[in-house]
Structures are given as structure tokens and as C-alpha cells.
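Below: protein 1.
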Amino acid sequence: MCNALDSTPPIPVIAGAAVSHEDLVLEASDGNKLSAFEALPDGPAAVGIVVLPDVRGLYRFYEELALRFAERGYAAVAIDYYGRSDGLTKNRADDFPFFDHMGQTTVAGVQADVRAGVERLRGRGVAKVFTCGCCFGGTHAWLATAEGHGVAGAIGFHGGLQDRNGEPGPLSRAAEMTAPILALQGGADDHIPNEQNEEFDAALTAAGVEHEVVLEPGAPHSYFDRRREEFAEQSEDAWRRTLEFIAAHS
């Protein structure tokens, strides 16, 4: 299971940071309309982040994550996945059958939505775009580097690696990835065995893809959550690595 509806990112707020934000409706190349949330720093941003949620789709956690990026000078757009099956909705109720809706997604559909986010940021004058996501979003953040979007790098927190619904996942597509990869995996994740992380590391190495696969010690799935105080040290390390990765490839 991923973050709860009342979860927030375990990232310190920068008091007094000047940012603006708004709800958006984006349109993908196939005509799909999707909900999105944009957070902008005060002044031009040369670097932008497309934020990819977990299986729940767009809700508060990822809007807050976009705001934390904006406070640090990055433009950010968080997108929803379920425009095709649930319309222009976000912050859905706790009983929303997200697994049913996730099962209706395709890599092509999700990546069309990712591209809409990338193009939104480029329209803002952003020169370097990164993808960053958790769980299902981590998977698609990495896959975005194999989809021709021209992203500068991809960051995934506890992202799934295997094929899904007959479509190749990050393990199968490592050789197609064209941008640096940062994988911030839980060292004690029951959903993603360490053997898979090792396979991903080896596949990226064999493909010559610049990358780092980090196993946060003792951390379970969805460790990156302010409510999980016992994993604060791992979360702090993951966020530090995220900012360093973006700075190194901007």
C-alpha cells in the first residue's frame, strides 16, 4: 500500500519562500484531459520537475511535494493518471478503487500524460525537465527516460521494476533509458525484493546508463512519509540525494 490520504512529504518547508500554485487541466496528445497541479517559484525557473503520484493518482501528498520543489527554485507540475477512466478528479475518497483504475492504464497513456506535463514546463521556459515519482509514479518516472521526452533525469522512490499487464517495466527496458536514473528503494520493501533492485542496477550498468540504485536501510515500501517518523533518517537521506541529483544534472 502507498501513502495514506493524510500523508505529507517528509521535507522541511522553507518559511517565507515565495511560490505560486494553481490547479490545471492539461491535454495529452491523444486528447485525454487530465487534472494537474502547478507550483512555481518567484521568478523564472530553468529547471522543472514532473511529479508522478502513487497508485491513488493526484492528491495532497503530491501537491505538497510540488510545492517543496518550488520553494527550492524549481517549477513543478504534478499530474493525475485517471483522466481516461475517472475524468477530471483529484483528491479522491479513501474508498476510491484505485487498483481497478490503475489496471486500465497503459504505458502509452501514462507517458502521453507525462509528456503533457513536460510540455507545460517547457512552455514556462524550463530548459531541463526531470521526472520524480513514488511507487507507480517511480516506475513511470524511470520509463519516461525511454519514451523520447528528452528529460534530463529521473528519480523514483520505491518504484516497481517488473513488467505489468503484459507491458515491459523498468527492468525490461533498462537498455532503452537515455537519461541518468536515481532509484531510492526501501532496503526492507516486501513488495520489491532487493534481488530486483540488484538486477536493475546490473541492467543499467550493462546498458551504460548513468545511475545510482540506493537501498535505504531497513526502510519498507512507502517509507518517504512524514507520518513514518521511524524512517526519518532514510527519508532525509533520500531527499538530500534527490536535490543533489537534480543539481548535478541541471
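Below: protein 2.
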Amino acid sequence: MALYDRIGTSYAGSRATDPRIAAAIHAALGDARSVLNVGAGAGAYEPADRDVLAVEPSAVMIAQRPAGSARVIEAPAEAIPLPDDSVDAAMTVFSDHHWTDRRRGLRELRRVARGRVVLVNSDPTLVARFWMTRDYVPGFVDLIPPAYRAPGFWAGELEELLGATRLVPLPVPHDCADGFYQAYWRRPEAYLRPEIRDNISMFRLVDQVAVRAGIDRLAADLRSGAWRERHRALMTLAELDLGVRVVVSDP
């Protein structure tokens, strides 16, 4: 909550709902009619054709929810103020890595959902797949506890806490409307803009001297043409698998 109270003031400016990602999430929800969105932020990816209740701990983020959004409860993922089996499905999108007690939060999702839990986040074992991490800000790797970088650990923990689990690749479109960390993989100039980085939590969590140095190297590589020479093949792709996954878990 404290993080997004600090950095979330302009969040909605660059974190719009991408329709292709929304379609994948809504498909993963299956036939659930009532859905709880945990760590709901400004309301991206909440399906308009279902009965949605949102849970969000940050008043700053709640204030950015547009008119007509689902009803929201100000509460953390670790203590959802609902009875057991309250909704058909629970979802959380790019949120669980910020929870104070991630395991407890995931148990809460399973507790309140009668059926499916849908989670969207990046597979921590694939963190170095993205050129930004690999070439410019390797300190991002250190944000991930070593156990989670071990093959199979993340998926195994999800299955332990949520039930039978499928990990479905979610390629990132080259013109993704939602400006999360990997969204600008084919638009590197975007990372030079402070207002873009300000809405990506990872840039706030890493040592700022290292971030500035990495951004300066990226700016130099863009000026010289070195970035485009190195990543020429990316410029022909419409989407790219950078490790983002839709986790679909049934009890």
C-alpha cells in the first residue's frame, strides 16, 4: 500500500487496459459470474459483463478508478473481509509480488473463491529474458528471492496454495496499451521518459543510481543505433513472450 500511495498518483496515465490481455484474462475466468479482483488498482481488466467486487489497499489507487467501476473495498490481499466461498472466481493482475505476505494473500484468494483463481504475473525464472533487465538494469534480478529463480519453484508454490494450476503464456503485444515493465520491448525510447518509469514499480524499487546509469546507457545506445542493431529481429515481431503468464488454478 505504501508503495502505491507514493508512486500511484499518475498510474492511470500510462496503465490503460490492453484489450488483448483483457481477452486472455476474461477467457481464463471461464463461466464465473461473480469475480473478486484483488490488488485491483484503478480497475484495469475487470470484466464489465460480470458481477465484480474489487479489493485494493491504496486510497491513491482507488481514487483513480473511473466512474462506473466495480464496487471497491479498501483492504489488503492478506486479509480479505469476505466469508469463505464468497465468489465464483478471484483474480489478481501484476499485484501479488507487492503483497507483504504473498503466501497468505494467495491462500486468501483460494479461501474466498468457490472455483477458479486467475493470476497474471511474470515467471520469475525468466526475468533475464528481457533486454532491459539483461543489458541495462540487472539489479532487477535481485528483487526476486533466489528460491523463486529456481526452475519449478514458483509453479510448485502456486499449485500448493491454489490447487491444480496451468501456466498459460501471455505474449506482450508490440503496441501494448498497458505500460507495465515489459510493455515497451519494441519501443525502447519510452523507458527514457520519467513519467513512464514512474508508473512501473520495479524502477522505484531498484537502487536509483543503478537505474539512472542503465537509462543513460540505453539513451546512448539509442543515439548511436547500437540498440537497433543488436535487436533488429525484434522490430519485425508483433508480440513477444517475455515470461508473462496467466496462471489458472482450480480447487
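The radius of gyration is 18 Å.
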